[in-house]
Design goal:
binds iron/sulfur cluster, 10 strands, alpha/beta, binds 6-(5-methyl-2-OXO-imidazolidin-4-yl)-hexanoic acid, globular, binds S-adenosylmethionine
């Protein structure tokens, strides 16, 4: 399948409607046409600035609008970042993703971020940052400092977006993605499913991603981690197979992108994760913590990879 950026919503909705085993078979076939199906890209996350975020994203434990009991931490010191990145490398990660709970960094924050990118690069790891909205100059400064990826998720469909976040709009997200792309950075952008959105919203999310001027190199599909104190703490559990469908449709519509089986793996048993890998997922977050919530133990992930015959992808 060639890479298309002109998908219609109807086409994407029709893919979601394909019987599950046929859908997974088709997605697995496309996956094999573009990637080694045993190779999984491994990223480790670190929260470099935690909590007290002015945004009101209904899923997020770090928003200052909700009482989640999360401790607030200022921007980490350089040696803390170096130590965490070094441990991630020793454990087998090839990319280190640093997350900051900001609406947008100030220019002086970019100075600090550039130093952090430098120490992670020195260790021979790929670098990724997610720090909120960027203007074109900030994106260019980060690129010039050697940053490899910038993560900025569209999160959900344009229609459902205002029910999840009121402090910024969907177009703000698109503008940052454009600045990131124009700066020559690799784009990491995906979303969250399981937020009480409809099937049509999942279609709308994948449509928005798959019709960007160029597909993101990395597409994280997160399953909501329900955190007490957030408005979505009691969200209805998304059917496992609807999650698999979301992965499969991302794979089919963005055939050359690396699709990440992202947050939510703690609630997925090995069989469900295996089905996600079959459906085209080829990246995970590795390490016991995501940003503030849990992720499977490294020993459990090593055992899973061994049982499935998967291997970590070497850094590009
Ligand atoms: N503040 C920046 C931003 O929002 O772009 C960067 C950090 S933010 C925590 C990065 C992403 O984490 C969000 O876009 C969202 O997709 C994901 N995320 C946050 N809380 C989550 C949760 N409870 N479950 C799943 N994904 C979550
Ligand atoms: C992404 O799509 N998911 C990651 C990363 N990009 C930054 C974050 C998941 C966060 C889950 C909730 C938490 O641990 O705070
Ligand atoms: Fe802030 Fe990002 Fe969490 Fe939204 S998702 S509240 S912007 S840290």
């Amino acid at each position: 399948m060639s890479v298309r950026t002109d998908w219609t919503r109807d086409e994407i909705a029709a893919l979601f409607d394909v019987p599950l085993l046929d859908l997974v078979f088709r997605a697995a076939s496309v996956h094999r046409a573009h990637f080694d199906p045993q190779a999984v890209q491994i990223s480790t996350l670190l929260s470099i600035k935690t909590g007290a975020c002015p945004e009101d994203c209904a899923y997020c434990p770090q928003s200052a609008h909700f009482k989640t009991g999360l401790g607030v931490e200022r921007l980490l010191a350089l040696n803390e970042v170096r130590n965490s990145a070094s441990a991630a490398k020793a454990a087998g990660a090839t990319r280190f993703c640093m997350g900051a709970a900001w609406r947008a960094p100030r220019d002086k924050d970019i100075d600090r971020l550039i130093e952090m990118v430098g120490v992670v690069r020195e260790l021979g790891l790929e670098t990724c940052l997610t720090a909120g909205m960027l203007n074109p100059e900030q994106a260019q400064r980060l690129r010039d400092a050697g940053l490899d990826y910038y993560n900025h998720n569209l999160d959900t469909s344009p229609e459902f977006y205002p029910q999840i976040i009121s402090t910024r709009c969907f177009q703000d997200r698109l503008d940052t993605l454009q600045a990131v792309r124009d700066a020559g950075l690799n784009v990491c952008s995906g979303g969250i499913v399981g937020m009480n959105e409809s099937r049509a919203d999942r279609v709308g999310l994948i449509h928005a991603l798959a019709t960007l001027p160029a597909h993101p190199e990395s597409v994280p599909i997160n399953r909501l981690v329900k955190v007490s104190g957030t408005p979505l703490q009691d969200a209805e559990e998304l059917d496992d197979f609807e999650f698999v469908r979301s992965i499969a449709v991302a794979r089919l519509t963005m055939p050359r992108s690396v699709v990440r089986l992202s947050a939510g793996r703690e609630t997925m048993d090995p069989s469900l994760q295996a089905l996600c890998f079959l459906a085209g997922a080829n990246s995970i977050f590795y390490g016991e913590k995501l940003l503030t919530t849990g992720n499977p133990e490294v020993t459990a992930d090593r055992a899973l990879f061994a049982r499935l015959g998967l291997k970590g992808l070497e850094a590009a």
